[in-house]
TrEMBL record:
<feature type="domain" description="Flavodoxin-like">
    <location>
        <begin position="9"/>
        <end position="194"/>
    </location>
</feature>
<dbReference type="InterPro" id="IPR010089">
    <property type="entry name" value="Flavoprotein_WrbA-like"/>
</dbReference>
<dbReference type="GO" id="GO:0016020">
    <property type="term" value="C:membrane"/>
</dbReference>
<comment type="similarity">
    <text>Belongs to the WrbA family.</text>
</comment>
<dbReference type="Pfam" id="PF03358">
    <property type="entry name" value="FMN_red"/>
</dbReference>
<dbReference type="GO" id="GO:0010181">
    <property type="term" value="F:FMN binding"/>
</dbReference>
<dbReference type="InterPro" id="IPR005025">
    <property type="entry name" value="FMN_Rdtase-like_dom"/>
</dbReference>
<protein>
    <submittedName>
        <fullName>TrpR-binding protein WrbA</fullName>
    </submittedName>
</protein>
<dbReference type="InterPro" id="IPR029039">
    <property type="entry name" value="Flavoprotein-like_sf"/>
</dbReference>
<dbReference type="GO" id="GO:0003955">
    <property type="term" value="F:NAD(P)H dehydrogenase (quinone) activity"/>
</dbReference>
<dbReference type="InterPro" id="IPR008254">
    <property type="entry name" value="Flavodoxin/NO_synth"/>
</dbReference>
Amino acid sequence: MSLNEAVRVAVIYYSSTGTVFELAKTAATAAEKAGAEVRLRKVRELAPAEAIASNQGWSDHAAATQHIVEASLDDLEWADAIMFGTPTRYGLPASQLKQFIDTAGGLWAQGKLIDKIGSSFTASGTRHGGQETTIVALNNTFYHWGSIIVPPGYADPIQFQMGNPYGTSHTSNNAEVPPGEIELAAMEFQARRVVETTATFVRGRAARFA
């Protein structure tokens, strides 16, 4: 990219009942406000239609987000920075997001994911429901890709209220409690930090090789 181009951020998520979707939307909006070109993408649903129909919140969210474009490998290659969002599943990322990540082997083999900026966020139904381990597990992907992980850390006062230096996280009380003001502010900060770090890195590299 040239020194005058906006950095490109892909916010790629899975959400069953909408909690992670709210975080992803907030990240995408904050990244745009910070000057980035953004693609908000959901990954393909793998659960059978019967399972989705059996949960009103799940089926309502699926219907409400039909307009969101599904993620493709082109989104990974296009992006300067990738933000992954997922609910916890036994302290691990949801299989829907993992399946999408597993299709990226060709890009990895060609070295096309090296030096991407990476950052992760999550939500769980219960307190201590595996939020930190889920983010760490997602970040293992970035290690293998040769990406540069950018966590929020405690680099902003909001982090001392939200309390997760690995990435924004939320406890939804089994989808009954949406992300609140603190969680959304933390998500906004994480997205801004990703954009600012990406701009510093990518533009510095462009200037070096200009």
